[in-house]
Amino acid sequence: MTNDPAPATKPKFVYLIVCFVFLLMLVTALIAQVPSFIGWLETKESGIAQSLADSEFIKFCGRFHPMILHFPVALLTILLLFEVIAFFRTSKGFEAAMWILLILGWLSAVKASIFGVFLSWSGGYDSETLYWHKWLGIAVAILSTILVVPKLMYGIKKKKKFLHTYRVLLVGCAVLISFAGHYGANLTHGSNYLTEYMPDSIANLLGIEKGASKTVVASSGDFANNVWPILESQCLQCHGAEKQKGDFRVDSLEALLFGGESMTPGVVKGDAMASELIRRVLLPIEHDEVMPPEGKGVMTPEDIMTLVNWVNRGAQWAEGTSVAEAVEETEVTVTQKPRVEIELPEVVDFDVHIMPILQERCIECHGPEKQKGKLRVDSLAWIAKGSRGDPVVISGNPDESSFYTLTILPEDDPDIMPAKGDPLTKAQQALIYRWIEQGVDFPAEEPVEQIQPEKEQSHKSEPAASSLAAVAFGSGPKNSISYEKDIEPILRQNCTRCHGINRQESGLRLDSLEWIAKGADGAPVIISGKPEESELVYLINLSPDNERFMPYKNEPLSRMEIELIEEWIRQGVKLPKVDPTEVTLTGDKIDFKRDIMPIMNKHCVECHGTVKQKGQVRVDSLEWIAKGADGEPIAISGRPQDSKLYTLTILPADHPDVMPAKGDTLSKAETELLRKWLLQGEKMLEVEVQKPEVADPALSRPLIHFANQVQPIFNQSCVECHGPDKQYSQLRLDSLEQLNKGANGNSVVVAGDDKASKLYDLISLPFAHDDFMPAQGDPLTDEETELVRSWIVQGAGDGVPIHFASQIQPIFNQTCVHCHGPEKQKGQLRLDSFEWLSKGAGGKEVVVAGNPEKSLLYKLVTLPFEHVDFMPARGEKLPQEQADLLRDWIVQGARQVDSNQVSKH
């Protein structure tokens, strides 16, 4: 046995320091090299975020991030503490605990990072701070996963190198957690949260510049002393310079006037009830949109009244007022300047900065080939000409320039530009704003190519010497224009909505050559070989301002489309021969909707439809025809000779009973079609006669608030058997959400109908009845029973009133007022104010409070699109959410302002 010296061993702490320094250098190098990789990854992630950000489940999971993130911080920190103790003092008792801490810390770190990414998609955070917090958090999740490997290898092979590697990685993980937590705190509380109130002596010692306090210096005591402290304490944390939830800020009047991502003004000067800020703070505490949200503060009634009075007095942001962290130069203005931090060039050049945007997004519809709205934007000279003679750019004033303002409209606005594809990016919007703001020098010369002037063309005008269509297609048989390939798509896209199977304005259909050959009310619309004498060509060449212009109230056809139709006619249209006394059918069996309903729409529905029912007869559907007049049928299947629907149409034109009573009589072809339809034996449908209902007095009482008035009744009398502990019949009444789930899967409340509501039926039974509720305890008082009934009649909602001015009137303004406003009052109806709506149509009520099914206004907007009485008559069908909002407003009693005011309805 030799006495060889034992090999020297390096102190453990030296080895650990060397490994830690190496790891820190490696991580620093990686972080310095990954921006390009991160940029690529962010691009990929943005696509994912775009499709998932609106998912309710993703939003739900994201809200758990602030709660879960504390687990990896605590667990991995305690694990590091245990390892430090084990480093200096071996203790086998720690081993099992450290494994539990490692596994739980690893799993919670991964879960927190995933939920954190979900939360980041909701927006409203400072982008740079969010970037570092997110990727440092992901790094913690990755590193904590790697930690398990050397720890496991050490447990298997008992080699120190695995233990040392594990401990170095654990220290690195703790460092990353510290930085991730630092940036997370900045996101939540602002970058100066820790230093704002730090004593000056400590700040000077550490060389820290204290964050500027967000205080206001003002010459006006009211704003500075009363209004700003409320905004600062209740709102600024989530809606200031550091964080902008919902893209909304309260630290400048411009930002308040502009509003947030919903594009609804936060403050409307002089009108508190129309201000989104006031609407949010007035909501019930349990409402999802209430501000400030639960846990972020509480608005006292005095605070709310202070804000309401401030807005109603004009929302004066006192002269001399300044907020420390003011809105940057590129912030939003009151007229919707893009509120984004973008590095813009000092001078925006049209050719360098603006023209690429136009080439990519605009010239397809506003260039040499097509000029929608008579606008071209492929040069400064064309932009200077404007649209239909009106300028689109006001040099120096972007807020009055439609060239800019149309690009910042909400995505669902029909007037947003560009009309195709995604909206312009905020950077592109900002470039256009800056370009107009700095002043545009338009060229003095006219553009080389002239757009065809807007003027009515004569029927006798000579054919164009050089037609685009003639050049493109030629005039020989080899290049002849095809109806199916070239013309039918144009007519289908632009014309058949009003001149097709469902509607035939002026008796004209353009959905087949046979119908085109029939013309409009018997007059031809196409003269083969003579476009200059064809009515169709004349109408599509009129100015859009002309009331006969076609397509009616729509974009004009492009120059290429017009000349294509002209050249098609010039080449000689082969129209089929059609006997004007016959109607071309599209099938052997006569179909009511396809063949008969157009006759009713043309001749009969004006007097016998939704608005008027002369002689108590309606013919706007098969059901109403089956109902007849005063209980007597007007159409008998298989017997046209006994059907007044037919016999009254074949009377002599001077007979007092001939139908239709107004306008031209039916043609021979139409009466023959009607006769054949009855003869073939159409099955008539039964229609139940509905009796008018008297308005329920519950609708005249103030709107009932569920949480404050109804829920206390349930808590006192019902929740013992229908609450969290017991759920007889699987019914819970401890919240509105649970109540709406019903009993055993069946609804117990039918909104607006107390008689069909099982809940009301049971509480109003006689006390001795077997099914009387509540089954235990005293019955509800008469006042409590009536309160529940009134709540159901009013719509069984949460009690938040739908405001006419801010929620219903905008729908009318957008879709109805152009036909029912100050300039026009079709049907003697105006919808530009609550007072005019209350007057009805020609003295006839159009809204029945509490009963949307009886309200003519609601019935017309929910008719099938193809129905002749569908409203709005010229436009798209109301979106479902708008129709539902209108219905709920009527169910609530069609009130004007709020639950404390009883309207005329």
**What's the helix count?**
34
**How would you sum up the global shape?**
globular
User: What is the mean pLDDT?
Assistant: 76
Give start-end ranges of low-pLDDT stretches: 1-11, 32-36, 38-47, 211-221, 319-342, 450-478, 580-587, 686-692, 898-905
CA gyration radius, whole angstroms: 37 Å
Q: How much helical structure, as a percent, in the residues?
A: 40-55%
Structural class, judged by helices and strands?
mainly alpha
Largest sheet report: 2 strands, antiparallel
Strand order of the largest sheet: 1-2
Write the topology of this structure.
Elements: H1 12-33, H2 35-52, H3 56-62, H4 65-68, H5 70-88, H6 93-120, H7 127-157, H8 160-189, H9 200-206, E1 216-217, H10 221-234, H11 253-258, H12 276-282, H13 301-312, E2 322-323, H14 350-361, H15 380-385, H16 402-405, H17 426-437, H18 468-473, H19 483-494, H20 513-518, H21 535-540, H22 559-570, H23 592-603, H24 622-627, H25 644-647, H26 668-679, H27 706-717, H28 736-740, H29 758-763, H30 782-793, H31 804-815, H32 834-839, H33 856-861, H34 880-891
Antiparallel strand pairs: 1-2
Helix pairs in contact: 1-8, 3-6, 5-6, 5-8, 6-7, 7-8, 10-13, 14-17, 19-22, 23-26, 27-30, 31-34
